[in-house]
């Protein structure tokens, strides 16, 4: 059960729940989630509707289409963008982004997957739900698809200095996405693993193929794919299915007759394993230790729920943690630095796949990699698998099934997305939401001790549809791709007649005029400030005290509907010298990953899997609410488990208190893994790094984060790994530093946090008291190495492996308790909505851009994301302020900016997540009074406030600029006055 708030009335009669246009096919109560799932079919078109009935007031809607492109032109992805650029009832240029501003939504987006495209939203406000539903349904089923919107969002040619250039939002988005080695690995592998089906192609679009897409092809794809007969509707919340279906019928479905439903096709099977070598782009001449090796198998269809769960168990047995045999081999093989980004079962496609791989290797190890993996599989498959290990993996599956997520993505949407693949492929999503019957079937099969071993033999060892790929770095590939694009454009340019050029110029002008023409906002529905709830919902807890090491210690207890799971945390106040130490972050890498007490790391890994949802160490850091030169810093030790498993509480204490520093090979291995994975993920967070660099000296926390988590810290970690690998003295010095930090944290003041269901709380509090009563603490003082802090305000440009830029400008601002924090927050949203979105995304071609006030960095920041431009973007940042001060402003713009901020502040989380957030807020002096005061200030910001803070903080200061960019931009950045640094 999910708690008292989570009940479903399953006695509701069919006449109340079924609209006449729909037929009820079945209903199923998912006991573990206490949700009633109803499956309906639209009588005329065959559209499917799954409704997940709860009494949650955050209602979720999603409509998805089966989209199966047979090329890599990005048709499905560009259509996803273009469909949201105006429709029959809402013929405005940008209804999606306009509705984000006119809504109290808790989620709005659109997704393009390999073989489906989905349009989801969520909101707690019923009026808002109706508004969004009308816009989404019209966009999905009656999109205008203006050719100029296709040119803006997809691909177009413009003339610069008389020469043709490619522009388009998706074109630049995919240039950025495909610069990440992990994306290149996935798409190049899929090209070989799926020789004939839609998965052979890149549904997002390959930048070299996107220019081949025509507007006519886009329109034809819309006609054949975006039809109710090819659609799946999914809804979650406390609205009835009847209410929803009434709107579906009235707003969209009544216009349609039966159409074509797409079905997925099985892939043509390989008769023998394939080995291929491909390349990916890197900058620099150092190619050593940059190769990826991956093995992949195509498995049977995902519709076989028993096999699907069985292969999940196989994945757990082989890869769950560092003690699992295949992961252990890959982590300790000696010819690679880390496991690869593709690991385990992917059951989201029509047919399942299994992957394993390594990164940070070299091409000559391909054979060793293949033979090593196959040998591990043979060893595991040759004998029964330990039943206690299988039970531990089943425990993880049950924990995952029961856990109510919803802190990033709304809980209802998480459930919907879990089941969507099944519905898209004409399978049964209810089997995915309710795995209890499948678990029962699997447990029957497990009576045969060789069942899982036989699955490994059948679907991996004896499966000829296996592809091994070696992905090798190529320092010339990026330049070759750029030259190929230039050559293609030059060839186009040579063939352009004067008439052609005039037509391109005319289309460019027409697009600019369309972008500059104000939309008639009266055509769109909206909510207003009058629809904002009067108060901010904040979860209240109880403050208890327990004895820890002979001292009274606060325990923050929160009762929540957690569905039989408890969340326990230890909160430790971090000393100033520890939080500023670069070694502090390394300690968090080790806890739970090295041994503790009598257990070596392999034994501890298996224990975690058996009794908990894992052990974690992290840090919750904020600037002091009233002093930017001070940091509020708390260490968080975290675990969760099913309420009958108290061992997790013991294990958390053991792993922290008795953390072992004697496993040298393991510690070096973990630091190497962190470095390699960090390097591989840079391009997806380029805008975050750019903002961090620009605001690095604007608060103590900003400086700390730049030094310890920025791009320079990655270089420092790489150098450290090299030193400790080669020099025993350097390794000993590292361990001494980590021990000092560990001692200081054991000595530091502590609090406890427990989130659980009320009827379980007393037993759990008693257990925490018993476990933490005594703590082994060294009372001797520990001195840390002092680290020199940089304190310059130069404009910095960091070069990384990417094909696009990420730009940022930062201005010194105020602490979050200052009365100007609220107008600065509104100012950021106001400039984004009114100027920056159009200038940077629509006209400039970047995937994204905007502004933000950061109360931790105490700064106001402009940023762009996956941006083809440099100097022009910085001019747009400055122009946005002049636009605010020197042009007439419309009243609705202020209301929209405030609405978005309040909606974000009011956004619900999971029951446990809301409790944890409330506790952390108190730790950092963000009391309920403080949070409500900030919300009230936001609601009363005026246009005059915005103009005042813009002059005071932006006009009267010189910003610090930063760029994260490709290596090829070095000369241009130097000419613009940036100090050049690079990731090694």
TrEMBL record:
InterPro entries per UniProt: Metalloenz_LuxS/M16, Pept_M16_N, Peptidase_M16_C, Peptidase_M16C_assoc, PreP_C
Entry's Gene Ontology molecular function annotations: metal ion binding
Source taxon at top rank: Bacteria
GO biological process: proteolysis
Pfam families cross-referenced by the UniProt entry: M16C_assoc (PF08367), Peptidase_M16 (PF00675), Peptidase_M16_C (PF05193), PreP_C (PF22516)
Domain Peptidase M16C associated: 471-720
Name of this protein: Peptidase M16
The organism of origin for this protein: Acinetobacter baumannii
